[in-house]
Amino acid sequence: MARQNEVIHGQLVNTDAATLLVPNTAVAEIVHFSEPEQVGDAPSWLLGTMEWRGLRIPVVSFERATGVDSENPGAGHRIAILNGVNSGDQLQFFAIVIRGNPRLVNLSRDDIATLADRDADKLQLQSVSVKDVSAVIPDLAQLEQMVSKAGYRSERVH
């Protein structure tokens, strides 16, 4: 837990359905959107896989993973490559589709106001207000676990 005067380094990341507040350390890179390679019999929230830095990684629609219908991404979208933290070498990275560029934020505890507590069905730890912006702190560990349980991995491209 952050102390009162501690600075929290994060990013406000827009998806089609919400603005996510994620720690800087969760984001490995932001890349231009390109159509993911389709995967047969994949859940609707898995858009496919993409090659990134010699790895094939799963690409997820955060909206669909939370049960919100969304159109297929295209112009105006980007991909946020996220660091896996719980799956060891099996899922070092995975990606979510975002809209536009994230906004870097340096926050103190006073800059964040809690709006609602955890909604596990929505992959959210909290709804918050950050400098007058409504945002969701996503449960990235649960999202990563969903991807891993569905059998998707980060794999070296041969």
Radius of gyration: 15 Å
Overall geometric form: globular
CATH architecture type: Beta Barrel
Q: Count the DSSP helices.
A: 2
Unreliable residue stretches: none
Structural class estimated from helices and strands:
mainly beta
Number of domains: 1
Helix content percent band: under 10%
Write the layout of secondary structure elements.
Layout: E1 8-14, E2 19-23, E3 27-32, E4 46-52, E5 55-60, H1 62-65, E6 77-83, E7 93-99, E8 103-107, E9 112-116, E10 124-130, E11 133-138, H2 140-149, E12 155-156
Q: Could you characterize what this model shows?
A:
With 158 residues, this protein is mainly beta. It has a single domain (8-156), classed as CheA-289, Domain 4 (OB fold (Dihydrolipoamide Acetyltransferase, E2P)), CATH 2.40.50.180. Helix content is 9%, strand content 44%. It has helices at 62-65, 140-149, and strands spanning 8-14, 19-23, 27-32, 46-52, 55-60, 77-83, 93-99, 103-107, 112-116, 124-130, 133-138, 155-156. The strands form three sheets. Strands 3, 4, 5, 6, 7 and 12 form a six-stranded mixed sheet that branches. A three-stranded antiparallel sheet has the order 2-1-8, with no helix packed on it. The radius of gyration is 15 Å and the shape is globular.
